[in-house]
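# step 3/5: fold
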Amino acid sequence: MEALEKRIQKRVHVSLFALLFLTALLGLSVLLEGCTDTCETTTKYVYFEPVYIKLTDIRSAVSIQAPSEIHSLGRLYFKDDILFVNEPGEGIHVIDNLDPKNPINKTFINIPGNYDLAIKGNHLYADSYIDLVVLDITNLNDIKESSRIENAFAQYNSLGFYVDQAQGIVTEWARKNQVDVMASDCNANVQAWGGIYYDRGIAFNSISAESFDSKAAIAPGSGSGPGLGGSLARFTINSNYLYTLDGGHVKYLDIVNEAQPIQKGDLFVNWDIETIFPYNDKLFLGARTGMHIVDVSSPDQPVLLSSYAHMNSCDPVVVDDKYAYVTLRSGNTCQGFTNQLEVIDIQNLKSLTLVETFPMTIPYGLGKDGSTLFICDGNAGLKVFDASDVHTLDKNLIAKHTGINALDVIPFNNVLMLIGEDGVYQYDYSEPKNLKLLSTIKIVHEEN
């Protein structure tokens, strides 16, 4: 372990902040404006310093707490009538969903640096910054940590984590005073993410500094067998293996012994992979530049079968026997210029064919049950299509729910679980043309 930490530290020291912000844009809420090409005089910049927490403190912080309000929403996971709701960077809310009309908040699992999860049997797998934490959830009133794989996600360093053996991990950026930046430094060092490297940290002009989300810049990029995850998931389970995205790699772990995962290896796919969706013995990976298909019929020897390229855009995916449904979204962090749904023929997995393209407003996650396709179209709301004929999908919009900023969905057993910008919504979709709202769990925003 010590050797690995030293290796990570050495590698990251080569270019601390170049690595740190290579893909930190995944977590930025808006596209930051950098200084212009005409930095002719000394300019006032706002300086941010990295905030470290020691690894020992992070690793001892996992705890079970009383149920609490949800302040922000990340991943949603469903298993055995329980909803597991991730609060990005903080942990997981456990909600009894036996009666979707009356969800009951049971407990909160405090996990620093948690952004994703998956569940097999009675064990929950969660990231905690660079570690993988395994929790025994047999008794929801007595959840315990079973094991931990330290440094499981070394590649997270290139997604915004900096490991320092003495100081720990960067978990936030602290805003400091304004600083004077010489024109020569500005012109030479302005970065694509909108600021410059300065001293031990970073600096932005006053406009960009107001938009910079100091916590979101730390976060990693954005259906599982035994449990159900959404289309934006980065963890999934197939057979007796846990597959996780780690930078440009798919890491895979043997979980035959649920409580004690065994790391088996990793497969490099592409630097920009963001989401993972399992179907039969294949993994479908959404990336900013396309979709990749990985064969896991031999689970400890995954093989990249094929890739489908599209313009640079955010890209979650769900599939059925014949088609992959991919939403492409433009926007600040994706740097794309399109908002659409693509339907791709996957019957020949080594030769993928684009079948149809349909315009959308600003699509995020999606889900499919039978011939019913649910698309979260951002501030345009939830859209429900009859996908019996993919060629006429645009003519078969059977329901539309506005007034909700829809982000991701899990359809299961006629209950649609939806993450919105302001809460978790559940609908009865036994009659897809007439969705009925069952319940809402609202986000309670923290006061500044």
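# step 4/5: annotate
The chain is about 10% helix and 45% strand.
# step 5/5: archive (pending)
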